[in-house]
Input
Amino acid sequence: MPILAPQTNLFPDDLLLDFTAEFAERRWWAIYTKSRQEKSLARQLVGMEIPFYLPLIPRVTNIGGRRVKSQVPLFNGYLFLFASNEERIQALSTNRVAQAWSASSTGEMTRDLQNVQTLIESGVPLTTEGQLEAGQRVRVKHGALEGLEGVVITRRGEDRLLVSVHFLQQGVSIQIKDYLLEPI
Output
């Protein structure tokens, strides 16, 4: 079985860092793809030079007694497009998109995606959370994740920090000790 090169999951590389005037006509779109089309759509968007973010996490599986490492989408079926209306239409023309929703706040969506990227880069085990719960908003005050904001939740008797993408009503969580947190 051939080994594939690492998947581009952020285009351009500084998309979540550099918001300038050139992006004024663009906004975030949550793209729900057809089944298992997230990476294929990402490859096409790179070719079209349309900005996007596809959060990927590592997964190790056993296939035929071998350990196989791969990258899988954190939010199954979703890719985040940062595009003008014309670029959105180009993305829709790939025939890989099932639905597209516009985010109401570019700033909030950018912060949410920056937080998700920070968690992925930290290398801590992530758990996808399908439903947001009410709870105390907090900020991490120490350690590698200092400054990260989210909501404290309890799962199976352990405290977790939930970082959410509000537009999707989904998020990811990590196990965390309460002494690392401060109320916002």
Helices lie at 38-48, 85-92, 106-122. The mean pLDDT is 89.
